[in-house]
Every structure is written in structure tokens, then in C-alpha cells.
Amino acid sequence: MAKVMVVDDVPVIRETIAKLLRYEGFETICASNGLEALAFLRTSAPDVMLVDIMMPEMDGMQLLANLRSEPRWRDMPVIVMSALNDDSHQNQAQQLGASEYLVKTHFSAMQILESIRRFTDKKNLQH
Predict the structure, then answer these.
(1) Counting CB atoms within 10 angstroms of each CB, which of 16, 62, 63, 114 has the fewest?
(2) Alpha carbon separation from 7 to 33, 124, 127 (Å, rounded)
(3) pTM for the full model?
(4) What is the span of the domain harbouring residue 22?
């Protein structure tokens, strides 16, 4: 069973996505910001991360930069999700190594599942 970390500061979004993923057979870990996510990574290794950009304490871009600077997390798929629908944020996320960028107002539950499955299926094929 693949493990997905959902990082979002809005509890209803975080818990709704986590509930959907659990229903679909994924194990989930939830964090409310980048610092909390990094703390969880010390003891738990997700297969994929789903990360919001706008969060307190450490935002998604800072988290992504931290992940990509750490050799053991450098290749982990990170799907960025944000309400920010502009090229500058999408380009910044891509430059920092985001695997995919989803705009919150433009994606459905099925698209989240498809993205996560695509990355977890790739990982399973590599092992």
C-alpha cells in the first residue's frame, strides 16, 4: 500500500483529501505546514507528497526546496496544489522540482487520484 503525505494548513481540505485517499486504499500522513511535514519525514517515508503552497511557518515552496536539497528526498514525487493560478508560481514550483502542479479550483478528486496513482505506479515498477 502506497503512503501519501498531505500537507495543507486548511483542515477541511487536508482531511477531505486524506479521507478520499484512505478510501482508495492509500495510507496517509497529514501535516499542517512544511515544518510539520519535515518533522514527520524523520520517522515516516511517504511514496508521494501532496503539498499546498500557501501555509504558515513554512510554505510549500520552502518545503519543496528543503526536500530537493536532501539526497534521500530529492527524487520523491511532490505534487504541488495551490489556489495560485499564475505562471510565476507554477514556474517556481517546477524549478524547485515539483513533479506536478494542480490548481485547486481546476482539479477534481479523480485528478488527484490519477496523479498519485501515476507516481505510485512508477515507483512500484522501479522496485
Answers:
(1) 114
(2) 6, 23, 26
(3) 0.91
(4) 3-122
